[in-house]
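User: Need the bound-state model for oxa(dethia)-CoA:
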Amino acid sequence: MYQTKIAGVGMYVPDRIVKNEELASMIDTTNEWIVERTGIEQRRWFKPGVDSTSSMGTRAAEIAIEKAGLEKQDIDFVVFATLSPDYIFPGSGVLVQEQLGLDTVGALDVRNQCSGFIYGLSIADQFIKTGQYQNILLVCSEVQSNTFDLTDEGRSMAVIFGDGAGALVLSRSEDESQILSTHLHSEGKYAKELILEEPSTLEEKRIMPDLMQRAGRWPYMNGRNVFKHAITRMSESINEALEASDLNKEDIDLLIAHQANLRIAQGVQKKFGLSDDRVFNNIQKYGNTTAASIPIALFEALEQGRFKRGDVLCFTAFGSGFTWASALLKY
Ligand code: UT7
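Assistant: Bound-state model below.
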């Protein structure tokens, strides 16, 4: 069996910075409320006609490939994680294959929302472990700002979520670097706690004439319930990963939790008693970029020298589905 290492990381965010004050000029909220409840100070919004989920993913992927010291032709397979694909079908993976000019490699789309990065990581790891592929591109990208209800009713979504992309090249390891384990979970009874229902194939016609009057056309989140489950499930899944590798919390050099809300990440940090130098958060700058949040944080942590080869990294995520996941790896 082969092992998988992170060979390169990239990120891309749109130019447009939306500070809390700008949001407060559109909806009934304040900078103070957003900072206190979420830690977020600003986020990025895509530019229609310039950015798309696939194009942002492609930009992040180009950086990841370059950092890995590879050529595009070395990529054997694409995994694309998003909740906001360019189209309902086909998925955005094939668009990245085209935009990067890759050979006719396979492209798989993962629809696991905030847990999409770790689900994608786990899939790539299995393909590399079996020897089927040597270099896999994992792309995570989201355009969420164009689904916000920018009235007071939609404020709980609009203040949190942002746009951006992160990408990894995962390669067959030739040294000690390896993904130690990944752990994937779901609990579909909570599907409607965080959902964008419309347009839906449950209807006679996918686009019903009264679509613009239907509440389900806006994303819905039961914030408090999601919050509560997030801390519990992310903590559980970290313990699961530590047990699987016979490690304990002292062995974690850096924890990167899905950047859902700074209070959630800090809640998990507190449960494990980790000092600030052993966690990385950047939700303050980008908001919650769903599948892209961990790879964006990973890129910045690496650029800032927050971890090095041989360090033990832990990822954990929770979101719509509910889905949650963790991964432990030796970088
Ligand atoms: O990515 C993974 C999935 N998502 C998450 O993990 C997010 C999880 N949830 C959260 O992060 C939080 O629940 C929110 C940030 C969405 C909301 O924070 P909260 O502390 O749970 O606030 P709340 O909904 O309980 O509301 C508290 C108060 C209410 O006022 P009253 O009833 O106490 O007077 C709300 O009306 O804050 C009010 N409020 C706001 N005020 C200003 C709610 N949203 C806002 C807002 N601006 N945007």
